[in-house]
Amino acid sequence: MRGSWFLKRRPEQRFRLLAASAVKSVRINLLLCCCIALVLIVLATTVSTLLVFSDLPPSLPRSHASGKGYSIVMNTWKRYDLLKQSIAHYSSCPRLESVHIVWSEPDPPSDDLLKFLHHAIRSKSKDGQRVKLKIDINKEDSLNNRFKEIKDLETDAVFSIDDDVIFPCSSVEFAFDVWQSAPDTMVGFVPRAHWVDSSESGGVKFKYGGWWSVWWTGTYSMVLSKAAFFHKKYFSVYTNEMPASIREYVTHNRNCEDIAMSFLVANATDAPPIWVQGKIFEIGSTGISSLGGHSVRRTECVNRFTAVYGRMPLVSTSVKAVDSRNIWFW
After folding, report:
1. Chain segment 9-37, per-residue pLDDT in tens
2. Are 172 and 159 in contact (CB under 8 A)?
3. Strand runs (DSSP E) across the chain, as ranges?
4. Which residue numbers delimit the Glycosyl transferase domain (predicted)?
5. How many CB atoms lie within 10 A of CB 243?
6. Residues forming the active site
């Protein structure tokens, strides 16, 4: 009798086990579907964010990419080994058309240096390209020299770069592609931020935020001209239209010409810059940013320029351009 009851119970137990297994499987599938849907929503939001750019105000005509390549404008100061290394590297970038070296030293470049640079340009150029090299010699030693108007500049796109930072050509070419989608905007590799200083009273004051501020908040409002694309027209605006008091401040304090350019472009476009993700190789060990009190001086610049413009033109954003062809997750 007991054996008969046990045999009847076995099919029922099996049915319950199968039912529990089926429910568990359905729950797992639902969870996977929810995860996939969430990922698709995030990706769609990211793509739509990357594709939206602010319209320009009527006062500044929209620029159009010329279809040509780009020119490098490189700032240097008595670091000849770094200059040689940088020129030799960037000369092989596919769409580079010309290199302009901003020379502000009291003595002109030596014949040996010129010979090396011209040889590097010729030997590193690929696919029959002819990259032009020009040394723009300035009589005055001023950081404003890096933004002087260049009369014979043949490309609309300018890649402003310091002599002590190197990016792979693939990263530079991708940043150029991004710039072509928004040629009135600054597109660069080194983001910085600003925010309202709540500790100050008696008027609105701002603070300058370095890389760690960008990393912590996920937002930025500037890309530094030590590695950034912008339109060549901004050279003329910087030299001839930007308030002279800003250029005088930069010359006197030997700092903040990059912040001045960020203010200029933001004031003209009412739009944020675009940060491009890229691997940076810093081949130099010294510079203005390594000096004590650097952040304090940069904060002073932000507030001084805000006062000159009569408003805060910088626009914060969290958009980052990423070349997804080279990474699994982005």
Report:
1. 455 555 454 445 554 565 566 666 665 66
2. yes
3. 70-76, 96-103, 132-137, 157-162, 165-166, 187-188, 191-196, 206-209, 222-223, 227-231, 274-276, 281-282, 320-321
4. 70-323
5. 14
6. 258
